[in-house]
């Protein structure tokens, strides 16, 4: 008894074309979901585990290289003189030289028990390299933090090999869209403990008062900066899985709708 063979002219071409359309639609939908889940373009940021008003903290200026063929060779951080900081020290960064510039204030400023007449206005790191696809963190211990504001804005200037300069100095309005080159912002919180703010942060990264915090609090503070990245990865994974499932289901549905011989 001879085997029955379906005519390829009536089955293969329509099924193949419909399957191809489904695969294309599914792939487009998956890419759309993934695009929405990918974090925004990396910027120069100011990060601290703890930044209480009136206290001391270590701020890490995170600088990514966003160029494909150039390296970052210099970073300049301009500090706000409307909220001057009396104490400032930098952590040595291997391969980089650092220079701090002090500026005399137009009039003395009182910060807690201190009267500030001059303050560091600019810190420059140079003679190092941040290669494409890499980032570098530059640590600065500073304080006392101001008590009359909940944010500090730092203007950053990033210089690449060959001359290109990117100025990260645009303000971000509350509730508004992020500008193309936002200035690094440090959020300040109200003091949690009434027993004082502790000593200035050490160069090795220890922060004033951190040892007195419960272990769970310290872990929560250390992981807060990674929550956004973890959420983005989770959304990307869910989007990919949804797209793949949709393609498989559609393909199975088409194969079951074969016309009679």
Notes on the structure:
The structure is a single chain. By secondary structure, this protein is α+β, with helices and mostly antiparallel strands. The protein folds into two domains: 7-40 and 213-261; 51-199, Uncharacterised protein YcnI-like PF07987, DUF1775 (Immunoglobulin-like). It is built from three helices and eleven strands. The protein has helices at 8-37, 215-224, 227-256; strands at 45-47, 57-64, 72-78, 87-90, 97-111, 114-130, 135-143, 151-153, 155-160, 165-168, 185-187. The strands form three sheets. It has a five-stranded antiparallel sheet with strand order 5-6-3-9-10, with no helix packed on it. Strand 9 and strand 10 (165-168) form a beta hairpin. Helix 1 (8-37) runs antiparallel to helix 3. The longest helix is centred in the N-terminal third of the chain and has 30 residues, at 8-37. It starts with 7 loop residues before the first helix and ends in a 5-residue tail after the last helix. Residues 1-12, 27-40 and 201-229 have low confidence and may be disordered.
């Amino acid at each position: 008894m001879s085997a029955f063979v379906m005519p390829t002219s009536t089955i293969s071409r329509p099924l193949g074309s419909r399957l191809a359309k489904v695969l294309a639609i599914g792939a487009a939908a998956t890419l759309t979901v993934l695009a929405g889940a990918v974090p925004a373009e990396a910027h120069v940021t100011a990060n601290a585990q703890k930044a209480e008003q009136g206290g001391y903290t270590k701020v890490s200026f995170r600088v990514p290289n966003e160029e494909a063929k150039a390296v970052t060779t210099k970073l300049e951080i301009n500090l706000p003189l409307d909220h001057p900081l009396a104490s400032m020290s930098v952590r040595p960064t291997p391969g980089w030289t650092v220079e701090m510039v002090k500026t005399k204030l137009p009039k003395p400023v009182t910060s807690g028990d201190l009267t500030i007449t001059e303050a560091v206005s600019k810190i420059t790191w140079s003679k190092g390299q941040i290669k494409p696809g890499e980032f570098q963190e530059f640590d600065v211990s500073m304080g006392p933090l101001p008590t009359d504001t909940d944010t500090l804005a730092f203007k950053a200037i990033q210089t690449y090999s060959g001359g290109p300069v990117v100025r990260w100095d645009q303000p971000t309005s509350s509730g508004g869209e992020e500008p193309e080159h936002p200035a690094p912002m440090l959020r300040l919180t109200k003091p949690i403990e009434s027993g004082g703010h502790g000593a200035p942060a050490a160069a090795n990264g220890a922060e004033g008062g951190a040892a007195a915090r419960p272990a769970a609090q310290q872990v929560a503070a250390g992981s807060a900066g990674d929550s956004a990245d973890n959420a983005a990865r989770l959304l990307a994974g869910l989007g990919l899985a949804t797209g793949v499932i949709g393609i498989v289901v559609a393909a199975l549905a088409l194969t079951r709708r074969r016309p009679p011989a």
